């Protein structure tokens, strides 16, 4: 089936686009006609995504970015505007999980780093992008949260805390739609077939690693391309703002309402 080029003329920026979900989203956005800025701390991974987009006939550029560095966040947004003239879509996607040992044994620096990458950078990327999007008359921001942002994910409590934070931020920014025509939504996937779920295995003692390899081997993983399609749905559907989309293996994506209302 030919790709729908409905995002032609749009400019999208994806953080953590050098691997996994970010790479799949960058490719899907480019296939839909958008010019894509690939931002990642990993130059090799970022360049690989750039090659994949260009080989498929898409338009993209790579910018080295550490999302925990405020100047880098401002620079990546400025780079998008300088390179392609505007910014319509931001996917705050870069993320990490815990190494070993888990919380509460984990050293303080490790859990602070997780908060910096998974939550502070989403806040910072959003803050950097808003003035540029306002100049364009609006835009869409998609945040990568997780199913761990909706459930009691005891395997990695700090990761869960950051993803609950991303869900809360996304819902609370619903006002930006009326105020600035900026729609903020997030995705909450279960386990996705990317390097991330296995990254923490490397730091585990052999016995624990064996246990986790067995667990992960039994979990059906969502293909990253399916997550990318969900991101594009949130980008395209102009009625969606402040929404949280759960993505689970073998099930249709669904919007998750907040557990309660204020009154
Ligand atoms: N894979 C899963 O099972 C899963 C499930 C739910 C949510 N998520 C979330 O989706 C997002 C993407 O995860 P993924 O599975 O594609 O992981 P991944 O490890 O394949 O890719 C993450 C990318 O982020 C980049 N990154 C890490 N720290 C960075 C930093 N400081 N600055 C810039 N880039 C940085 C990495 O270099 C990498 O390219 C994350 O936010 C993750 O929490 C993943």
Alpha plus pi helix count: 9
Helix proportion range: 40-55%
The CATH architecture classification is 3-Layer(aba) Sandwich
Widest sheet, order of strands: 3-2-1-4-5-6-7-8
Q: What is the total tally of β strands? A: 8
**What structural class do you assign from the helix and strand content?**
alpha/beta
CATH-defined superfamily: NAD(P)-binding Rossmann-like Domain
Structural write-up:
With 263 residues, this protein is α/β, with parallel strands linked by helices. The protein has a single domain, classed as NAD(P)-binding Rossmann-like Domain (Rossmann fold, 3-Layer(aba) Sandwich), CATH 3.40.50.720. The protein has nine helices and eight strands. Strand 2, helix 2 (43-55) and strand 3 (59-64) form a beta-alpha-beta unit. Helix 1 (20-31) runs parallel beside helix 2 and helix 1 packs across helix 9. The radius of gyration is 18 Å and the shape is globular. The mean pLDDT is 96.
Summarize the structure in short.
By secondary structure, the chain is an alpha/beta fold.
Explain the layout of strands and helices:
Blueprint: E1 11-15, H1 20-31, E2 35-40, H2 43-55, E3 59-64, H3 70-84, E4 89-92, H4 108-136, E5 139-144, H5 157-172, H6 175-180, E6 182-189, H7 196-199, H8 206-218, H9 224-236, E7 244-247, E8 254-255
Parallel strand pairs: 1-2, 1-4, 2-3, 4-5, 5-6, 6-7
Antiparallel strand pairs: 7-8
Helix pairs in contact: 1-2, 1-9, 3-4, 4-5
This protein binds nicotinamide-adenine-dinucleotide.
